[in-house]
């Protein structure tokens, strides 16, 4: 009987190892093929399956650099920051600092004064699932003012002005992607914890998970990629400011796989919070939304994902809790179509 159990354990190990190798090789083949067709776009990919990590990368840190991109190369993860912020909001729920169904009125910093039509209407979960109806930051105008650092002119005063001058929620309860919503969530976190967003994300995510190559205010490191806009022009990394909670964290494939490992595990604060974010808070004929997460469901799978685009880089993170896999794709060029095509090909050919 003992020999039978030993043989079974060996067979299971071989099967799992073979699957992991096959998984890795197929994804590497897809990424390599994409790079050969688009040699101007550097790519770093990390994936985790049944607690085993795999990485692949192609390209240079910049057009002028001789250094290869690898799993530790720094990218802007852009709006993937939003799932970190929503995880912090869910941790605040667990810490009993707030409730998702609470109205935002009492959580806004001093200076915000909601119009009578807006009072006791917008919930914290509405902000986190993009259905608050609040006006958003005008990125088109900001890009015209400063194409390298468009958010540099966004201040607390300018945000207060936008909110205080809003007297109607024209599409409350309907999905409309909102940078404003996640900026406000960052300010709400600061109020309930009495600390800066930077301090909060370090204390609750970056430090406990030992994400040593994930940066906030300071990110001047040797292995930083250079981002390129769709026309091929070099783009600066966005500097840290009040919109940080909506999209200003910088990270790499290795650290984002560490994050995926944490949320796919059980019994840790980040994973417990992730379970809250995975509940459906918005649904229409086109989409289902958790807190900061898009939810995609077919007959066999439920996938949680979030994409990000800065002025010069594109990224996407995706995971399947039931099947215990996840991956991160980082591109050093703003190309949402390429990012989406890679996601689709990996899912259809490897993961589905």
TrEMBL record:
<dbReference type="GO" id="GO:0016787">
    <property type="term" value="F:hydrolase activity"/>
</dbReference>
<dbReference type="Pfam" id="PF00144">
    <property type="entry name" value="Beta-lactamase"/>
</dbReference>
<dbReference type="InterPro" id="IPR050491">
    <property type="entry name" value="AmpC-like"/>
</dbReference>
<keyword id="KW-0732">Signal</keyword>
<feature type="signal peptide">
    <location>
        <begin position="1"/>
        <end position="20"/>
    </location>
</feature>
<protein>
    <submittedName>
        <fullName>Serine hydrolase</fullName>
    </submittedName>
</protein>
<dbReference type="InterPro" id="IPR012338">
    <property type="entry name" value="Beta-lactam/transpept-like"/>
</dbReference>
<keyword id="KW-0378">Hydrolase</keyword>
<feature type="domain" description="Beta-lactamase-related">
    <location>
        <begin position="39"/>
        <end position="339"/>
    </location>
</feature>
<dbReference type="InterPro" id="IPR001466">
    <property type="entry name" value="Beta-lactam-related"/>
</dbReference>
